Amino acid sequence: MNPVQTGKGLAVVTGASTGIGYELAKCAAEDGYDLAIAADEPRIQEAALKLKEFGVRVEAMQVDLSTPDGLRRFASGIAALDRPVELLLANAGRGLGDGFLDQDIGEAQRVVDTNISGTIALVHEIGNRMRMRGEGRILFTGSIAGFMPGTFQAVYNGTKAFINSFSFALREELKDTGITVTCLMPGATDTDFFERADMLDTSVGQGKKDDPAFVARIGYDAMMNGEGDVVSGWKNKLMSAAANVTPAETLARQHRKMAEPGSAEH
Question: Does residue 148 form part of some domain?
Fold first, then answer.
């Protein structure tokens, strides 16, 4: 039997197959929101099956949001549902380790296209619909990585610095429109991120990480409360505070110790 359409609108979650994105979708499902979820891997269908257990409708699409075609397909799929998007959780992200000149430039470009280009294009599309209705909530998954130069993660950290900054600017632009904008800024989290970024031989890749369910709940609650930003975990709060008063050159040197290939202690 198909779930009955809820009285609440739609929650759109990107990068929802695993990790923080899946947990964010789970928070919305527990709250009674129907879901439109996307990821660039087949596991998005497995995630959809689990999320349907909460009694909500779930539309899942395997699309690459780093490409214009993937964005068009996802936006069209959302529009076809003919439901107001109440929540947009822009979580899709991609990492990449190693020195910049040693990276495949196509892979580096894909990080930019996923983390920045695809994110702002989707937010522009759905944000305009929210503004026409005069209501909606947007959550970006930024990162404390955006506070520091990412030695051996230079492109990734640069994209997160963009997202952190962009979210604050958009929040101010949308003040008094009925739309709230929140930026979740986690630290290292126990997801597939480090494996996909080829960073398992680094200190940060092998170090202790936060639980994605814990991180997602903090971000989701902050969004629902209309907060501007939230850093998950007290250690990450300390790191972000320290980053604001530490010279960039020092931060870059410290980041090398975490992210340089082969830096993991054996």
Answer: yes
pLDDT digits (tens, 9 = 90+) for 51-104: 999 999 999 999 999 999 999 999 999 999 999 999 999 999 999 999 999 999
Q: How far apart are CA 174 and CA 131, in angstroms?
A: 8
Cα–Cα distance measured from residue 133 to residue 128, given in angstroms and rounded to the nearest whole number: 9
User: CA-CA distance, 144 to 160, in Å (whole number)?
Assistant: 8
Q: Give 161-209 as a DSSP string.
A: HHHHHHHHHHHHHTTTTTEEEEEEE--SBSSSHHHHTT-TTSHHHHS--
Q: Which H or E run includes 60?
A: strand 58-62
Give the three-state DSSP class for 10.
Answer: strand
pLDDT (tens digit, 9 = 90+) per residue, 161-216? 999 999 999 999 999 999 999 999 987 655 555 556 555 555 655 556 568 899 99
Query: Residue 90 falls within a domain, yes or no?
Result: yes
CATH number at residue 67: 3.40.50.720
What is the rounded CA–CA span in Å between residue 244 and residue 11? 33
**Is 87 inside a domain boundary?**
yes
